Amino acid sequence: MSTTRCYYEVLSVERSASGDEIKRSYRRLAMKFHPDRNPGDEEAEKSFKECAEAYEVLSDPDRRGRYDQFGHEGLRSTPGHDFNRMNPDDIFSMFNDIFGGGGGGRGRARRGPVRGYDLETQIEIELEEVLEGTTREVEFRRLDVCETCEGNGAKPGTRPVKCPTCEGVGKVEQAGLGGMFRMVVACPNCRGRGEVVTDHCGDCRGAGRISVKRTLEVRVPAGISHGQVIRVQGEGEPPRPEDLPEGNGPRGDLHVVVGVEEHDRFQRDGNDLVTVVPVAFAQAALGATLEVPLLEGGLVELEIEAGTQHGEIHRIPGHGCPRLRGGDRGELVTVLQLVVPRKLNEDQRNLLSKYAETEELEINDAEPSLWTRIKDSFS
Fold first, then answer.
1. Can you point out the beta strands (E) in 98-198?
2. Final residue in a domain of this structure, among 211, 234, 261
3. Does the pTM exceed 0.90?
4. d(CA 101, CA 235)
């Protein structure tokens, strides 16, 4: 293993990150550093390989456990891949299930049409919008086929020529394990295409793809939770130039990660909403009908019995969040909070003093000090 940086630092995740969080972060970074998006950038290719190495370890529970306990030393006896000797295309194809897109060099066996890359973006909605659903306008950038060169990267009027490294095959042999065996990998010069561009297109600079800004409206369904993903089919990127220069294969998808903002009064717990309801001492002692605010606006009545205690929980059905795939709403969970008055008038003090006498409770009968009365007059 060549990487010496902390794998969690490489993938920008906490040590407590779940498998899904690690997968999501790797996908984002791999898209960012993929050589297709950074042609000729050695630092980006190095970062791409580093992320792939980190993900291979952290996505495996056994290897992650050894790494957490012993660090890089714990992986030295563990078989793995040498990512520094591998072509970026081969690394990317190893995680095809993550991206749901095409990968690998020319000549690699495939089932079905070559598919493009998925993209990811984020939106924020308010908790109130979870009740009915909403729409958001999403703006993002993606790579599209260059219309000038029709995706082949060559200047109009010219054509790519046969790759001198692989002689047009798109594959080369590479020694492995100290020369004990040889393996076939995508040609590093033409990246598996079998052709190279000598006279580059002026618009895409030979990449065959250009970055474009796209805006679309995304429907957010009612009941969605923080961190859930909406998949918009066909709004990702086309297949890579080395797979299909003209880009006429199926596009990848756009993954929209939804964030739900925190609310100052309500907290979500699954499909339930939790809120704190203040209760006066007299109401708790004698019983009362309380009016509880709802997330969507308005009030609902809550009956509490005499002798209600601080911290009691009452559930009101049908006033929580809707279920994502339909059905009844969850519950509104009310947590009662006993409110003790900070100051009393003379009548209130006398009444409470009499109550304390009936309970044989020891209380402070002293009159408030001058300083206390001054502070109370300004509060």
1. 119-125, 134-145, 161-162, 171-176, 181-186, 195-196
2. 261
3. no
4. 13
136 and 70 share one domain: no
pLDDT digits (tens, 9 = 90+) for 177-226: 455 567 788 888 887 888 888 899 999 988 889 999 999 999 999 999 99
- Do 55 and 79 fall within a single domain? yes
Eight-class DSSP state of 155: P
CB–CB of 116/252 below 8 Å?
A: yes
% of the chain surpassing 70 pLDDT: 83
Instruction: Report the share of the chain in percent with pLDDT over 90.
Output: 43
Q: What is the CATH number of the domain that holds 362?
A: 2.60.260.20
> Quick one: pLDDT at residue 314?
97
Q: What is the pLDDT of residue 221?
A: 95
d(CA 272, CA 303): 20
pLDDT tens digit sequence for 58-103: 988 888 888 887 777 767 654 444 444 444 444 444 444 444 444 4
Cβ-contact 52, 96 below 8 angstroms: no
pLDDT at 245: 74
Range list of β-strands (E), 198-308? 209-220, 229-232, 254-260, 266-269, 272-280, 288-293, 299-304
- My answer on whether 308 and 361 are in the same domain is yes
CA–CA–CA angle 202, 204, 207 (5° rounding): 125
Mark whether 271 and 255 lie in a shared domain. Answer: no
Domains held by the chain: number: 3
Beta strands 119-125 and 254-260, pairing class: parallel
Q: Residues of 3-18 as b/e, b for ≥16 C-beta within 10 angstroms?
A: beeebbebbebeeebe
Which candidate, 187, 185, 188, 190, places its Cα nearest to that of 160?
190
